[in-house]
Amino acid sequence: MRTAWLGKSQLPLLVKSADRDEILYTAKETVNSLSEFEFRLFRDHIHDYCGIYFEETKAQALASRLTSRMMVLDIASFSEYYNYLKFHPRGKNEMADLIPRLTNNETYFFREINQLSFLVSRVEEKIKQGGGSPSFRVLSCGCSSGEEAYTLAIMLEEAGVFGRCEVEITGMDIDRKILHKASAAEFTPYSLRSTSGERAEKYFFRSGEKYRLDERIRKRVNFIHGNLIDQDVFKRFKDVDAVMCRNVFIYFSDAAIGKAALSFYETLSGGGCLLLGHSESLSRVTDIFQAERHPNAIVYIKREI
Amino acid sequence: MLSLLMEGLMSELNGHAASGVYGDIPGLLSAMKADSPRLRNAAKAQLLRKMPYEVLAHLEEALRDNGDADRRNSAMEVFVGFGGESLPSLSRLARDRDWEVRNFACVMLGAIGEQAALPVLLTALKDEEPNVSHAAAEALGKMGDPAAVMPLIEALDMSDFWSAYPIIAALGEIGDERAVGPLLSYLENELLAPGAMHALGSIGSTKALDPLLNILRVEGSPLRDAAFSAVMDIYKKISGGEEFPIKERLHGEFGEQSFRAYLIGLLNGTNHNLKEDALIIAGVLKDGASSGKALELLQDEFLSAAALDTLKEIGINALPEARKHLKNPSGRVRQALVGYLESLGEGLGVEELIGMLHDDMNMIRAEAALALGRIGAAEAASPLADALEDESPEVQEAAVAALSAFPPPLVCSNILPYLQRGGHPRYMSLAAETLGLLKAEEAIRPLSSLLYDPREAIREVAVKSIGRIGGEKAVPFLITALGDQSPKVAQQAVISMGKVKDPHILQRLIKFVREKDEALCFYAIGALKEQDSPFAIFSLMEILKDSPREMTVAALEALGSLGMKETCKSVLETSQTDDMELLRVCIQTLGRLGCEMAAPRLIELLSHCHWSVRAAASEALGNIGGEEVCEALQPVLKDEDGMVRKIAAAALGKIG
Question: Does ipTM exceed 0.85?
C-alpha cells in the first residue's frame, strides 16, 4: 500500500505483482481474510466477466491476488473492493486491471513446439494443394506477451512459407497492458530460455537487459484485445485455419470452456484445428471437435455436423 | 455445493454408469485406474460417499486380486479414505491366512493412524512372515504412539537385521527418550549404526551426544558423517542453548583446527544435507574461514538460503571475502549479498550497498535501495535521491520507499533542489510522492508550485502529496486544485480533502454532495466519510434519496463505516428496492449499523429467492441479535444453500 511510512522499522519487503511494471510495497497483515460469502461473490462476478473459475480450494490464492489490487487502491476490506468493482465509476477499468492478476502469464519462446510444428506442416500442405493464392489464418487466444505467436512466425519464416502463402497471425488477450508489451516485442532473457543461441542471434537484438525481436518477425503478428467468452469478439474472424488456446482453459469453468469452444468452432473453417495445452481437454465438455493424435501432439479438429 | 467442474466429472461418471461401465462399485473402482487424475478423484469421492458396509466387501475382494495391482491400490486408497470406519475390516484382514493381505492391512492401518489399531499392529509385529512384521513396525512408526515404544524395544532385542531396521526407524519416528539406551547399543553394529544414529537424531535427546561425539572424533571412520548429522539433528531439535553448548563441545572434543578441517571437507563434499548442516555449524561457530565457501554456495539453488544465514551469523568476519564477490557474475550471489550487507547494519556494509545502487540488474539495485532505507544510514540519503532518476521504475519506486523511511529534513534537503530545478515528469512525480509519504510540512510550499505544472500527472501527484501531509497549511492549496481544468486533478483534490479535517473543506464537500456535482460528488462522498461531522452524516443521508446507483452505494458504505445508528431509518428506506445488488449493500450496511429496527425487514429477506440476499440478511441479523431473530434464523439452518446455512449457524453462534 503506498501510504505513509512511519520509519525504517516499517519499511516493508518488496512485493512484486503479476505485472512487472508495478511494484507494490506492502505489509501483508493489512487486509482481513476473505469470507466464504465474499469468495462466492467475487468468484461469480469474475466468472461472469471472463470465464475464469476459482474452486473453493483456491480461495486463498484468490484472496492474495485481490489483496494486491486492494493495496494499490488503499481499500481495506474485500467487501468494499467488491462494491468498487461493481459500482464505482472506475470499476470496469479496475476489473481490467484485476483479471490479468488472476492467471499466470508465463510463456516463453519455443515452448512445447510439437503443436507448432504441426501447424507449420499444415501451412505447407495448404501450399502443396495449390489453388489461387493460398492463405492461412491463425488465432492465438490468451496470447499474453506474444511469445507463442512470434515463435510460430519464426518457425514459418524458417520453413520459408511467407513468400508462398498469405499467413495471418493474430494474438488475442483480455489484458491490454500485456498486449502493449506483445506489440513492443521486447523480451527478457527469461523469455528466451528455450531459444537456441543461434536463433537468439538471428532473430533478436540485445538492447540493455532486453532482447528486441527482429522487425520482420514482429510485423508478421497483429494483436487485438478480446474476452474469450464474449462471442461478439469472434465475429470479426472468419475461416480461421487454426486456433491456439494453450494453458488458458485450465482457469475456466466447464461452462466457459464450452462457450469459448463454440466461438472457436464458428470461427474455424471446415477441418480447422484447435490446439490446447497438454493438460487440457475438451472431451468432458463438448464433442464438436474430434481429438487427433499427431507426433507428440494432440490436436482438435472441427467436426462436420 | 458442487462446482461446475465436479458436476462435469460426475456427469461423465454417470454417463459411464448408464453404459454399465462405472455406475456400480466395481465400476467406480475401475474408474480409479483412469489416466485422468480428476476422474480418479471423482470416482474415489463417489465411493467414499457410499456407506462403508456397501463398499468394504468389494474392497476386500479387490485387495485379494493379485492379477490387478492398480485395482488393489485403488481399493487400499478407499480403505484408508474411510479412516476409522475401515478399522474392524482391516483388523480382521491383519490376521488373514494370506500373508500378503496381512501385509497390506498393516500398511493401511499405519496410513490411517488410529490409536485403536495399536493392539493389532503389535500382534503383527511378531508375525512369522518378515514382510508383515516389517510393515507393522513401519505402521507403528507412522502412528507415532509412545505406547508402542516398549513392545518395539522388546521386539528389537529378538530381531535379526531385516526386522531390526524398520523397528529402529520406527523408534526414531516415535521420538521417545526411552529408546535412546537400546539404540545406543546398536552404534557398534556396522550395518545398523547409521539407522540407529538417524533415529537418535530424530529423538533429539542430549543423552546420545557423548557416544555420537565419540564416533565423530574418529578421523576416517565411515560412520563419522552419520554421527555429525545426528548431532546436528539433536542440536536443531533443542535449539542450541546451554543444554548443548555446541561450540565449546565441538572445539573441545576436536581442537579448533581439526574440526574446521572436517567442516571444510563437508562443505566441499557432494551431500547436500551434510553441506547444509555444515553451513549451520559454521555460522554458529562464526567461522570466518568458512565464509569463502559459504559465498560460493550462494550460487547453489538449494543451499543459497542456508549459505546466506551462515554469512549473516559470521557477520563482519565475512566482509573481506564478501567484498570480492560484489561484482560476481551470478545475480543470485549479488542479490544474497544485499541481504548479508544489510544484516551488518549501519556503518559496516553501507558503502558497499551504495555501490550496489549501480549494479547491472534492476532487481538488485532496487533491493539495495530498500536495504539502505531499512538501515537508515544518513550517508545513503543523497545516493537514494539520485536513484529516483534510475532508468528502471522498479528502482525508482524502491528509492521512494527507502527515502520515506528517513527523517524528513534529511530527505527534503536532497530532494527539494531537484524538484525546484524541474526535470523528467517521472522523476518529478516520484520526488513529489516521496515528500508526501514523509508528511514533511516544509514540503507543502514547494509542492504547491507543482500545481501550476503543465503536466497533469505531476499536478495530480502534487495534490495527493499535499493531502497526505495535511494540516492547516494544505487547505488553500487543495481548494485551489479543485478548480484545475483536469477532472483527474480535481477528483484527486476531493479525495485528498478527506484527509484534512477543516471547516472550509467540509463546507466544500457538502456543497459538491448537495449539488450532486456530476464529476466530484462520488469522490466527495468518500471524503465526507473521513470528516466525522454531523453535517457530513446528514449530507450522506440526503444522497440516499433519489441518487444514481453508484453514489447511493458509496453513501451506504460511508454510513456503514461511520456506524451511527441514527442513520438506520434512511438505510432501511433505501432497502425497499428491486435492485438486488443495491439491496445486498443496504443489508450489509444495516448489519454494520446493528440496528434493531431493521430486524423485521431483514427477517423478511431471509426468504428472498437469491442466495446472496439470504446470506447477507443472515449475517446482518447476527449483528443485531435478539430472541425474535434467533427464532427467525432457525429455519435458515435448513436453507437449500449450504453457505447460507453456515452463515445462519455462525449468526446464531454469535448471538449465543
Answer: no
